[in-house]
């Protein structure tokens, strides 16, 4: 069989680096204690079930889905808080942009309050802020949305734990093995180093990977500041030289 | 010296207590989108056998989780995925293959209205037993948990499955089997911990 004249084969997904990703059991984050599996995970190479993923078309996305300042606001009104643009790229571990990735994001309002019936923080709800949005990455993996900077909030864990300001992200790539939920933090927030949930990350490098940076180049003068936040999904092996059957 | 300049996967963080705001906002009463994604796996008449799968996620004390989100991903009845990465044929146009459930507001029980999946080959060409990929996130779960739903009534296929046969602790295999109930639906409970702990995968 010729190997030189055919495009490289796509192999299975590069194994997830469990030394880098957080462990399941992280006792300072108390809820993890009874929600963490104790048996070893069963490792095996990805198969078609994990190398495929649903397709989300751009026509799914409404005009205001990526604008949290306006998507829940009454006509002529807007959400209260520091106006920001969050942008970046979704890449894979090989450094390639991931087009067509569905990003869903949710957050507290500028006072640190979520719009949820189980939420009991006394900070006020903003009647013009729902707290969720979504978008799909462009051809180069880039994305952008507009929101207000969320506030830090207290949460029941220790007697006085506060979350740093953060935005939750859910990401779909091209394979179900890439499925990821994570959080973006904001450069310079003093709560980052105090938070038991940030504390499940194993290195400063991992914390930095989730910390969005102020990006003056994307700031809109007299309107919105901008933060840059790139997301990296698992990549697939790619090679001309593979004797085993594809995917193993 | 040069550097290997591969990127590292973004670290995972818990979905937190309010994952439903972001992923199923209509379920929480936030009406911005037309509907919640993943609630309809069937968009018209489908091929194959229509089935219902119900289950509950339990923590290590046996308490049901009411803030979890469960997603499933599967091929159609012929074993084809509705995916851009599917190169073997075209999947049933009325079946998305992907479902997402926030669980019941009070009990936490999740429900999927789907079809019995067809078999899909393992990378070495052997056939796998029919299965559905499941992914579970919640407050207290630092990185999403992958598992698989196989079917108790596929004993012969299960006995020859390349992955099931490789599992050292064969007595744990029932944790991966959906069981047929009297009303015709399948039951698949997930136990995060304890003697019934579900087998989770590192894929
Ligand atoms: Fe949060």
Describe the structure.
The complex is a heterodimer of chains A (248) and B (203). Chain A is mostly beta strands. Helix content of chain A is 4%, strand content 28%. In chain A, strands 3, 4, 5, 6, 9, 10, 11, 12 and 13 form a 9-stranded mixed β-sheet that branches. Chain A has a two-stranded antiparallel sheet with strand order 1-14. The longest helix of chain A has 6 residues, at 204-209. Chain A is globular and about 60 Å long. The mean pLDDT of chain A is 94. Chain B is mainly β. Chain B has one domain (19-191): Aromatic compound dioxygenase (Protocatechuate 3,4-Dioxygenase, subunit A), CATH 2.60.130.10. In chain B, the strands form 2 sheets. An 8-stranded mixed β-sheet of chain B has the order 4-3-6-7-8-9-1-5, with no helix packed on it. In chain B, strands 2-10 form a two-stranded parallel sheet. Chains A and B meet through strand 2, helix 1, strand 4, strand 5 and strand 10 of A and helix 1, strand 6, strand 7 and strand 11 of B. Fe (ii) ion binds next to strand 9 of chain A.
List the main descriptive attributes of the protein structure presented here.
heterodimer; A: 248 residues; mainly beta; Protocatechuate 3,4-Dioxygenase, subunit A; nine-stranded mixed beta sheet; two-stranded antiparallel ribbon; 28% strand; globular; B: 203 residues; eight-stranded mixed beta sheet; two-stranded parallel ribbon; binds fe (ii) ion
Summarize the structure.
Chain A is mainly beta. Chain A has helices spanning 48-51, 204-209, and strands at 9-13, 42-43, 83-92, 102-106, 132-136, 142-148, 153-155, 161-163, 166-172, 180-186, 211-214, 225-228, 231-233, 236-239.
**What is the general shape of chain A?**
globular
CATH architecture descriptor of chain B: Sandwich
What is the molecular shape of chain B? Answer: globular
Which percent bin holds the helix content of chain B?
under 10%
Low-confidence stretches of chain A: none
| N to C succession of SSEs of chain A | EEHEEEEEEEEHEEEE
Portion of residues within helices of chain A? under 10%
Number of strands of chain B: 11
CATH architecture of one domain in chain A: Sandwich
Distance between the termini of chain B: 33 Å
Q: Ranges of chain B with pLDDT <50 over ≥5 residues?
A: none
In angstroms, what separates the terminal alpha carbons of chain A?
Answer: 19 Å
Integer average pLDDT of chain A: 94
Coarse structural class of chain B: mainly beta
Instruction: Name the assembly state.
Output: heterodimer
* Class derived from helix and strand content of chain A: mainly beta
């Amino acid at each position: 069989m010729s190997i030189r004249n055919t495009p490289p084969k796509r192999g299975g997904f590069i194994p997830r680096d469990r030394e880098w990703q957080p462990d399941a059991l992280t006792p300072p984050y108390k809820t993890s204690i009874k929600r963490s599996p104790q048996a070893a995970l069963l490792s095996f190479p990805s198969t078609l079930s994990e190398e495929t993923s649903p397709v989300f078309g751009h026509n799914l996305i409404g005009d205001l889905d990526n604008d949290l300042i306006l998507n829940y606001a009454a006509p002529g009104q807007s959400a209260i808080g520091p106006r920001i643009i969050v942008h970046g790229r979704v890449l894979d571990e090989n450094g390639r942009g991931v087009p067509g990735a569905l990003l869903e994001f949710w957050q507290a309002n500028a006072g640190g309050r979520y719009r949820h019936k189980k939420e009991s923080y006394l900070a006020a709800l903003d009647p013009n802020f729902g707290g969720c949005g979504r978008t799909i990455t462009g051809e180069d993996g880039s994305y952008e949305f507009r929101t207000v900077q969320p506030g830090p909030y207290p949460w029941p864990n220790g007697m006085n734990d506060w979350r740093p300001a953060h935005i939750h992200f859910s990401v779909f790539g091209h394979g179900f093995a890439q499925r990821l939920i994570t959080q973006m933090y904001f450069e310079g927030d003093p709560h980052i180093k105090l938070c038991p949930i940030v504390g499940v990350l194993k290195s400063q490098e991992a914390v930095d990977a989730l910390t969005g940076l102020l990006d003056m180049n994307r700031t809109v003068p007299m309107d919105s500041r901008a933060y840059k936040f790139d997301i990296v999904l698992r990549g697939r092996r790619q090679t001309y030289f593979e004797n085993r059957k594809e995917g193993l | 010296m040069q550097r290997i300049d591969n990127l590292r996967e973004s670290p995972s963080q818990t979905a937190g207590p309010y994952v439903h705001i972001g992923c199923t906002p209509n379920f929480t009463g936030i009406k911005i989108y037309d509907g919640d994604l993943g609630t309809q796996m069937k968009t018209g008449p489908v091929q194959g056998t229509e089935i219902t799968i119900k289950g509950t996620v339990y923590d290590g004390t046996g308490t049901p989780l009411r803030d979890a989100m469960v997603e499933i991903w599967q091929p159609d009845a012929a074993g084809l995925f509705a995916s851009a990465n599917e190169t073997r044929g075209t999947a049933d146009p009325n079946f998305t293959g992907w479902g997402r459930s926030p669980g019941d507001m009070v009990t936490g029980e999740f429900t999927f209205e789907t079809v019995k999946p067809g078999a899909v080959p393992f990378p070495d060409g052997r056939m796998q037993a029919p299965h559905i990929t499941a992914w579970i996130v919640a407050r207290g779960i630092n990185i999403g948990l992958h598992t698989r739903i196989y079917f108790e009534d596929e004993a012969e296929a299960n006995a020859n499955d390349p992955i099931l046969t490789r599992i050292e602790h064969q007595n744990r295999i029932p944790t991966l089997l959906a069981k047929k109930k009297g009303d015709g639906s399948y039951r698949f409970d997930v136990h995060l911990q304890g003697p019934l702990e579900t087998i989770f995968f590192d894929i």
